[in-house]
Amino acid sequence: MIELKDVHKTYTRKGISNEALKEINLRVEKGDIFGVIGYSGAGKSTLIRLVNYLEKPTKGKVFVDGHDLGEYSVKELRAAKKNIGMIFQHFNLLESKKVFDNVAIPLVLTKKSKDEIRKRVMELLDFVGLADKAGSYPSELSGGQKQRVGIARALASNPSILLCDEATSALDPQTTRSILQLLKKINAEYNITIMIITHEMSVIQEICNKVAVMEQGRIIEQGSVLEVFGHPKHLTTQNFVKTVIQNSITDSVQKTIKREPGSGIYKLEFIGQAASEPILYKLIRSYDVEVNILFANMTEIEETTLGKVIIQVKGETTEVDKALFFLKNSGVGVEEVEKHDVNYSFN
Ligand SMILES: Nc1ncnc2c1ncn2[C@@H]1O[C@H](COP(=O)(O)OP(=O)(O)OP(=O)(O)O)[C@@H](O)[C@H]1O
């Protein structure tokens, strides 16, 4: 549906070149909510602006619905862009026009009749929950309401793709949630493919099914949100994931741990079914080991539960080995953090 193949983008100004994007390869399937995350300057805005050809690649190709945007004539490109709506961090509404007229802009440009325009605009305002604000000016609206108007305007021309450029970055957490829920509804009810760029991992966690992580103009990691949140490989991704999923023992618990011979500390990962079964209970009942929970966290991603637990296990080596085998056999990810065998010295 959207595909970027070996895309590079270099800005050149006054003889100085800045390589904003390097070797970008990504594919967004129809119906995806695809998130692109990265720190400031990573190249996110440049990337999303390539999808509606607000920027042209220096090298490589951008395909939308199988068509190379670089091959289109000006007229064909204009038609293709109608299929791609966009919303912005600062909403980009016309302050001098009423809400109704802001939403009507794309329709007026298509020369539809007044009645058709009125019907469509009111339908859209109703969908975003602002039917009663048609006669208000943007300055009379809250940030969340302004973004709803931006969304209604972006949907006016019935696009099959919606691009969101830091669409919730100027909003408080509660308003962010309501806008993200609205985007989810748009994706589900209108089957609109959504591409979101953000610097907040919570946005990715809340609505995306796929994610690409960017750093210094490159995609350093990409995959399903569950895959990337479950096993972040790159340090930058791990730092992003840490902002939403804590996965380490707190300092006060650290101080209480008795690192005795015959004990070990293990990180466990429970995904989906494994997170809803009484596996630790069975482990304690079936094996002669002491289990102490040092940390536990459950998160919901892509409607799947992801559990991170850190335990200390103490017992005879053979019993501990059997207990760990039982965990792995039950679909639990097991990673040894530290192990103190019987010859462990405390100095
Ligand atoms: N029009 C431009 N001319 C020259 N350089 C640009 C232009 N737009 C972006 N850049 C440069 O390209 C790089 C990537 O910028 P970009 O805005 O895409 O990153 P970003 O990840 O969206 O950052 P932010 O979150 O701060 O907006 C930066 O080094 C930036 O200075």
Automatic annotation (TrEMBL):
A molecular function (GO) term: ATP binding
InterPro entries in the cross-refs: AAA+_ATPase (IPR003593), ABC_transporter-like_ATP-bd (IPR003439), ABC_transporter-like_CS (IPR017871), ACT-like_dom_sf (IPR045865), MetN_ABC (IPR041701), MetN_ABC_transporter-like (IPR050086), NIL_domain (IPR018449), P-loop_NTPase (IPR027417)
SMART domains reported in the protein's UniProt record: AAA, NIL
Domain ABC transporter: 2-241
GO cellular component, one term: plasma membrane
Pfam families given in the database record: ABC_tran, NIL
Record GO biological process: amino acid transport
UniProt entry tagged with the keyword Chaperone: no
Keywords: Amino-acid transport, ATP-binding, Cell membrane, Membrane, Nucleotide-binding, Translocase, Transport
Family, as annotated: Belongs to the ABC transporter superfamily.
Protein's UniProt name: Methionine ABC transporter ATP-binding protein
Organism: Paenibacillus stellifer
Lineage, broadest ranks: Bacteria, Bacillati, Bacillota, Bacilli, Bacillales
